[in-house]
Write a structure and sequence with these properties.
- With 400 residues, the protein is an alpha/beta fold.
- The protein has 2 domains: 140 residues, Aspartate Aminotransferase, domain 1 (Alpha-Beta Complex); 224 residues, 3-Layer(aba) Sandwich (Aspartate Aminotransferase, domain 2), CATH 3.40.640.
- Helices cover 38% and strands 13% of the residues.
- The chain contains 12 helices and 13 strands.
- Strands 2-8-7-6-5-3-4 form a 7-stranded mixed beta sheet, with helices on both faces. A 4-stranded antiparallel beta sheet has the order 9-10-13-12. Strands 1-11 form a two-stranded parallel ribbon.
- Helix 4 runs parallel beside helix 5.
- The protein is globular and about 60 Å long.
Amino acid sequence: MKINHHYLNLPENYLFSEVAKRTREFQACFPDVSIIKLSIGDVSRPLPGVVVQAMKRACTEMGHGKTFRGYGPEIGYPWLRDAIAKHYREQFQVELDVDEIIISDGAKSDLSNLLDIFDHNATVAMCDPVYPVYLESNVMLGRKPQFFYATAINNFLPLPDEHITADIIYLCNPANPTGVCYSRAQLKQWVDFARQRQSVIIYDAAYACFINDSNLPHSIYEIDGARECAIEVNSFSKMAGFTGVRCGYTIVPKNLCTSDGVSLNQLWRRRQTTKFNGVSYIVQRGAEAALTPVGLQSINKNLAYYRRNVCLIRKTLDQLHWSYVGGIHSPYVWVRCPGYRTAWECFDFLLKTTGIVCTPGVGFGTAGESYIRLTGFNTYANTRTACQRLLALQNQKMHE
């Protein structure tokens, strides 16, 4: 039996699985320690009430012969795609054709599955540090990605340069893990670069809901020329609390074609209709409700809750005089490890001395070796307790 030997080039554990494993081992040894997770980007606020009610109604429909539904459209029900198009038009002044929107079970799946429509010999470039799915899904195909590095030197916002020669370019904005956000002018540089090189940008907008400034772009299609070079991936996970419900979407413009005229929209649609049976009717009704005025009002309250958490984390880091970026238009704060040479050493230190679980930056790439990521997705009470524990370190020498 032959296997895909490229899987053997992957790390033994997915980053967040390793974090969870080490946390479990610590908890087993010290069961009395109260653990606070400021690590994985999972939400803590419940679903908006209007979403729950819509899903309940959909469940009731599924229990009656006249309203029961079996297989739905693989690319998503038209009414949800209409709601997304309306949201983009009203919130971002971006016009989308409904057929350019294809519903999925989340951004993570699409970011990997999109690779199916490209030649296996296609080259790919991505940021370091990077969301592990970008890297590992390409490693599974035997690709060796090119990297552009986010460091303090470029304010963690790398811009295109002549060394990038890839067919596919991954961008995440606001960025995971660094929490920083590109301006319109900076994104325009990436769009112009991709068009000149005939590259395709896979644009991860999963955290765009945290952008709290109308001068910053929420969608890459707010940038002139993006429709000729960019695929946008988005999700209801962070926006509406769907991490455990699963619903996302990918936008592939109809005028995005290969140099010989092949439509990427048609290829992605063909891939999904072959390999995916679609998101459940119940979930899609919930997603539709999330985009109603009442749903968006509830969503904004939840986003404000997480922003409050992140603001508290940033204030605490300022008091500690720890260097960091992010946390303004993002749920993530990218923190320079205080007094420690490696991210895992800092992870162990915080876990053992405070019971706080962070994410070691090296898990996102070599440029993250001296950093950790903190998240504002926990409850406010837990976040406040975690910050109090961090402040208790103020009089300790971090290198001891």
